[in-house]
Write a sequence for this structure.
């Protein structure tokens, strides 16, 4: 049973590696960010699958992953790439 | 193997399949908007199925709550992130792909 | 404020699976989260109508599973069946929180993705289905969200007419 979970976890990691192709190809910054989001979700799934074998501490790490992935994408979109306010106009001045 | 173990096996495998479909979509789809569809929806269900597959084999209810919370958090954050990326792409003038011809 | 603090405390105990020793960190964290939420969203807390919830949850679960299956099918299909389009959907939902909720749920339903929320309409990217099909789906969802939040739907056409008069 645990071997099967481990096998699925490896398969998901392989998915992430293949997904890296999208980061390399782009072409827009959005495409690259999207791949980062893919890593977030897949990373959580991988950790959860490994938890039965390596202990419930991995669930806690998955929880942190879930939160950090969201913060990363939001920070990227709001600060570095498309820093405008909700009205869709005006500049962003370090709020 | 018990019935619960079979259920867990089937659910987690189905979940991994959706992750696979999501990655294929991210690589094959023609523009950032369509790729966002693939990522948000396929991976969301993939994670949901894996979480469900792990829930059926857990004993304590606290772990069930924790796993469900992880899934809800990922769904909420990926829907929000997906909207923000699409919005930024639209705002910076990333063109929409249309079938040629 | 007490209700919010209680909600955060429940969330923390789920995260830590009820581990008592974690409250050394959890106590201050719950306090900080409550403070942040009161500062950022002072007006009111989120509340859902039970009857709305009973109708919304099954619809949402079934449709979002279908959405994932649909997108997986398109991704794996050799000919890549896509006919993407942007739909400008005139919003009838007025409440801010309900609108944010709608924006997020749209992205999880079959073939649709919220691209931009404007004052009077929502720009939606769809994989397929044409303007009429996508609008019909959004209308159903908007009604369910309105029932969930217990807020009225105001026809934007009627509203602009009223503004002109």
């Amino acid at each position: 049973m645990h071997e099967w979970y481990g096998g699925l976890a490896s398969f998901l990691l392989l998915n992430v590696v293949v997904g890296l192709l999208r980061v390399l190809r782009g072409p827009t910054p959005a495409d690259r960010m999207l791949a980062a989001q893919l890593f977030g979700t897949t990373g959580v799934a991988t950790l959860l699958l490994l938890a039965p074998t390596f202990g419930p501490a991995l669930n806690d790490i998955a929880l942190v992953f879930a939160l950090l992935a969201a913060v990363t994408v939001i920070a990227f979109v709001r600060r570095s790439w498309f820093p405008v306010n909700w009205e869709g106009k005006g500049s962003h001045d370090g709020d | 193997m018990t019935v619960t173990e079979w259920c867990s096996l089937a659910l987690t495998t189905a979940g991994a399949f959706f992750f696979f479909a999501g990655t294929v979509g991210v690589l094959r789809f023609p523009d950032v908007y369509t790729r966002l569809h693939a990522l948000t929806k396929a991976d969301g269900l993939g994670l949901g199925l894996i979480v469900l597959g792990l829930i059926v084999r857990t004993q304590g209810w606290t772990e069930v709550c924790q796993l469900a919370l992880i899934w809800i958090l990922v769904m909420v954050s990926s829907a929000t992130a997906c909207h923000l990326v699409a919005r930024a792409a639209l705002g910076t003038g990333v063109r929409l792909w249309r079938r040629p011809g | 404020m007490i209700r919010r603090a209680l909600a955060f405390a429940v969330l923390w105990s789920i995260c830590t699976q009820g581990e008592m020793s974690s409250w050394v960190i959890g106590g201050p964290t719950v306090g900080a989260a409550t403070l942040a939420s009161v500062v950022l969203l002072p007006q009111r807390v989120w509340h859902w109508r039970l009857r709305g919830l009973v109708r919304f949850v099954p619809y949402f679960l079934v449709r979002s599973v279908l959405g994932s299956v649909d997108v997986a099918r398109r991704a794996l299909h050799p000919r890549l069946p896509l006919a993407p389009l942007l739909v400008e959907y005139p919003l009838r939902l007025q409440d801010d929180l309900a609108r944010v909720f709608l924006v997020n749920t749209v992205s999880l339903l079959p073939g649709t993705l919220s691209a931009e929320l404007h004052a009077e309409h929502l720009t939606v990217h769809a994989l397929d289905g044409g303007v009429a099909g996508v609008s019909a789906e959004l209308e159903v969802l908007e009604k369910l969200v309105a029932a969930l939040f217990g807020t009225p739907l105001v026809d934007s056409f009627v509203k602009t007419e009223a503004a002109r008069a």
About this structure: The longest helix of chain C spans residues 50-76. The two ends of chain C are 43 Å apart (CA to CA). The interface with chain B takes residues 11, 14-15, 17-18, 64-65, 67-72, 74-76, 80, 82-86, 103-105, 107-108, 110-111, 113-117, 123, 125, 127 of chain C (CB under 8 Å).
